[in-house]
Every structure is written in C-alpha cells, then in structure tokens.
Specification:
63% helix, two-stranded antiparallel ribbon, disordered N terminus, 410 residues, 12 helices, mainly alpha
Length: 410
C-alpha cells in the first residue's frame, strides 16, 4: 500500500558521525588559546633566554601542533585494536629513551636531566601516554586474574616501578607522580581489587615521604608549599609571582599582550607558568573559560569512553581523558598554591614539543574510540557509512533526505 507524503511524515535518523564534534571543537578551542598565549608570553623569552627572534617560540609551537595533528589523524584512521602489535616496541623505545636521558646523553637543565637533542625531546612526556596505553591493553587482557596479587598487582607494580624508577633518576618528581597516579586510576577503572588499590596507595605514600626527605628539591617544594599556605609571602618565588599576576589581572584582565609579570621574573612564563599569564591578561573571566573547557573535555571524553563498543575502548578513552585533565589540574593548582610546585605542562597551551605531540596523539586515540562507536551503531542500524549525513539534527528541519525505496518497489 502506498502512503501519501502528506498523511505521514516518517522521522528520519541521522547517520552517526565518525567523530565526536563537540569534543573536537573543545580541543581546537584550547589549541587556539594556547597559540595565542604562547605568542603573547613567548616573544620576550625567545629573545632573552633562547637568544632567538621574537617569533621563534610561536613558530616552533605551530610546527609541533601541525606534527601532533598529523599524528592524531594517523592514529584516528587505524582501528585501535591493531595497536596491540606495537605495545612492546613502544615500551622498548620509551625505556631506551629514558635510559639515554638519565644515564647517557641527557642534557642538564634546571638541575635535572630531562631532555635530548637540545630540549626537543622529553621522554618522560612520552612515557605518561605510553603507560596509559600499555595499561589499557594489559588490563583488558588480564580481566580474569586482576583479583590475584600474583597476576594482577605484582605485574602492575613492576611496570610502573620500572618506568617511575627511570624517570626518578632524572629526577622528575611531577612525571613520577603522574605515572604512578595514572597507574592507580587505570587499575581502578579496569576493575582492580579495591583492597589492592588501598595497599598501593599506602605504599606510594610511604615511598613518597621517603623521597621527599632524601631529595632536597622535593623537600624544598613541600616546605615552600606549607609555608605558602600559612602566609602567601613565604611561598615559593614562582608562586608569589603567579599570585601577583592573578591579582593584577582582576576580573577582566589587563588585555592580551599587556601582562608585565612575564617580563619581571615570572619563571618560564611560556611553559609551566603560562596559566598565570592567562589570568593576568584575560582575568578571572577568561581563565575560568579555560577551566570550563578542560571540564568539558573531561565530561565529553568520559562520555566517549562510556559509549565505547568494548572494554578496551573504554579504558583507552577514559584513561587518556583523565590523564590530560590531571595534567591540566596539576598545572593550574600549582599556580594558586593548592598543591606543591610540579613541572607539569598545561595541555594544548604550554609551549613545548613533547607535551603537545603526546597530548594530540592521545586525542587521536579518543577520537578513534568515538569512530569505532559510530561505526558499530551504523552497522547495528543497517546503514552504510557512505550515506548522506544529516547535520541538522533529528527534527527534520530542512534536513537532507536519504535515498530510499518506496514500499512497493521490488
């Protein structure tokens, strides 16, 4: 029986996109803010510290964004299950790089060996993402034995202990903290035994306390943090200057390019302290928008993880999303003396090639999971991937109709 078009209008469903548009827009917004702030905070640093032209750091950051986007696109285009074959080579390369930087060829900067090739490569940044990816695959494969201490907790401690130990040799306390923290979070979301997690927390606290006592740098950072809580005037120099920038910025900020603390002693303004520059130039209003963007990234990334077609996709998307948010949270909290000083970069925003490329590679994995979810939904609903996509929503408002057979056509 033929149905007249005017009698009934069937509501059409859109083809599920192979990419999470809100998530991608949030990433692009953060990248735009980052490039703007590196341009503002980096020219004086390029001239006085690096001895280069004023636009050196900005141009360098653009190159790293371009490289990172290419890497993200390649990762996005490959089924994430296939990366299992690359796990061993990936971890082997990370371990070799960490050995090189710590014991062979590392370049000493600010009292630590953290980089190779004139600061172009920081293996500890790569190690953070590598640990999350490796643990996602490992936890996915070991689901049946996670409750066993012998096959669950001990191997996990071995993996994290090896990477954290090599990073500690630099030393890089913030990277060690991030690796261990992400290991615990991954073990938790992967279904690890809560009693084992509590044991790990206790052990980490004990070892951390010992390291704070042994290493003068760590001890100084904690002491300055405690003193800053009691009286901001007794906080570390970096914290004092960042608080000064926040006070100067007020609610609306002094305007892009008009900050002065980046010229008068704010340490590493284009990298670790860039959020202080954001607050001074964009004020509490603009800096709050940056925080909201990271919160939106967290929510959308966890949404992608929740919609993932399998546990591996959930672990990858959730782990990488939480890692990026943790990096941002640590950087921002340091600037306002909520936690002791740490050298974590502000994702998408701080100047630095290793951090930028690594974070964008992580974004490629998250979007890969989103793509797999869309492909599965389209397959379940019996719609080929080359159908016309309705970008206007499901309300039928001037939507592009998909070709379909009439009910009596055979």
């Amino acid at each position: 029986m033929n149905t007249k078009p005017g009698n009934m209008k069937k509501k059409e469903r859109s083809l599920h996109l192979g990419i999470d548009v809100p998530f991608l827009v949030c990433v692009l917004a953060l990248l735009a803010v980052g490039l703007l702030m590196v341009y503002s905070a980096g020219w004086e640093y390029s001239v006085t510290t690096l001895g280069e032209k004023p636009d050196y750091l900005f141009n360098r950051q653009i190159r790293f964004v371009f490289i990172g986007c290419i890497g993200a696109a390649l990762i996005y285009s490959i089924d994430y299950h296939r990366f299992k074959k690359l796990l061993f080579p990936m971890m082997a390369i990370i371990i070799i790089l960490l050995i090189l930087v710590s014991f062979v060829y590392g370049e000493t900067r600010l009292g630590a060996k953290r980089s190779l090739f004139q600061g172009s490569i920081q293996p500890s940044e790569f190690a953070k993402l590598a640990v999350v990816i490796y643990l996602a695959f490992w936890l996915y494969a070991k689901q049946e034995v996670l409750d066993s201490v012998k096959f669950g907790l001990v191997p996990l401690a071995g993996i994290l202990g090896l990477i954290a130990g090599l990073i500690m040799a630099q030393p890089d306390f913030s990277a060690v903290l991030t690796v261990v923290l992400m290991g615990g979070i991954m073990f938790f979301i992967g279904g690890g035994n809560i009693r084992q997690i509590i044991v790990v927390i206790v052990i980490v606290l004990v070892i951390g306390s010992i390291l704070i006592i042994i290493y003068p740098t760590a001890h100084t950072r904690v002491s300055d943090f405690v003193a800053g809580l009691q009286d901001p005037q007794n906080a570390s120099y970096q914290t004092q200057r960042s608080i000064e920038a926040i006070v100067r910025g007020g609610f609306w900020g002094v305007g892009i390019g008009h900050a002065t603390t980046k010229f008068t002693g704010l340490p590493v303004a284009p990298t670790d302290s860039i959020y202080a520059v954001i607050v001074e130039e964009l004020g509490l209003f603009g800096s709050s928008i940056v925080v909201l963007l990271f919160l939106f990234l967290l929510w959308r990334g966890l949404y992608i993880a929740n919609q993932a077609p399998d546990l591996l996709g959930k672990l990858l998307a959730a782990g990488i999303t939480i890692w990026i948010f943790v990096e941002a949270a640590i950087n921002i909290c340091v600037m306002v003396n909520i936690i002791p000083i740490a050298g974590n970069a502000l994702p998408f925003i701080s100047a630095g090639g290793s951090s930028m490329v690594t974070v964008l590679a992580g974004i490629g994995f998250i979007l890969n999971v989103s793509r797999a979810t869309a492909n599965q939904k389209n397959k379940e609903e019996g719609r080929p991937l080359d159908e016309i996509v309705d970008l206007r929503g499901n309300d039928g408002w001037r939507s592009v109709s998909r070709s379909r057979r009439s009910s009596n056509a055979h």
